[in-house]
Write a structure and sequence with these properties.
Blueprint lengths: L24 H28 L11 H30 L8 H43 L9 H42 L1
Helix pairs in contact: 1-2, 1-3, 2-3, 2-4, 3-4
């Protein structure tokens, strides 16, 4: 017959988690490079689709506002698709963790997707910055060799300000949702990895 000791407290659970970092950079770099590649593919596909909707010989082309809106939507879709693909791969490519609580595994997979998104976003930002710097250099050289143009009108400046504000809001919202999509895709990829 067993004797129950009422004064005994809870027994401490044996921890099997390592003190080493749970970040697996190989899967994060793999996911980030995949997201970068998908971004490049979709960024080259987008102008092709956009140019297919316009024609210099037709008077029924979409208005510049419609064309700009379609381009913004394509950039958002590109960011979301590449984020999902990179995040999923980052979660799927990591090694299987054994003896760790389900909530911790879910958190780690989510973090891997988020880190893959952040690295891919950093790569794209560096590429855009380098391209912009080169463009500014060429433009400055061309402007120095041409006569001075008339200053922009206040209406043109206001229109440029509105476009910049819309671009900033659209980009920041897309990046925020892209981070969420990559995190959720990382969790899904890790879930599928653990099922295998």
């Amino acid at each position: 017959m067993a004797i129950i000791n009422e004064a005994a407290g809870p027994v401490a659970e044996k921890s099997v988690e390592s003190s080493a970092s749970a970040v697996e950079w190989a899967s994060i770099f793999g996911g980030a490079l995949a997201a970068f590649g998908v971004t490049i593919i979709l960024m080259t596909l987008g102008p092709g689709l956009g140019l297919a909707t316009t024609s210099p010989w037709s008077f029924t082309n979409p208005s510049p506002t419609t064309f700009g809106t379609a381009a913004a939507i394509w950039l958002v879709v590109t960011q979301w698709l590449s984020s999902a693909f990179g995040g999923y791969l980052a979660g799927r490519l990591r090694t299987k963790w054994v003896g760790i609580r389900t909530e911790e595994v879910f958190f780690r997979d989510t973090a891997h997707g988020l880190l893959a998104w952040a690295l891919a976003t950093l790569l794209i930002a560096v590429l855009v910055t380098l391209g912009s710097a080169a463009t500014v250099g060429v433009t400055a050289a061309a402007a120095a060799s041409t006569p001075a143009a008339a200053p922009p009108t206040p209406e043109a400046l206001e229109q440029a300000r509105k476009v910049a504000v819309a671009f900033a809001f659209t980009t920041s919202l897309s990046l925020l949702i892209g981070a969420f999509v990559a995190s959720a895709a990382g969790a899904l990829g890790g879930f599928h990895r653990d099922e295998a």
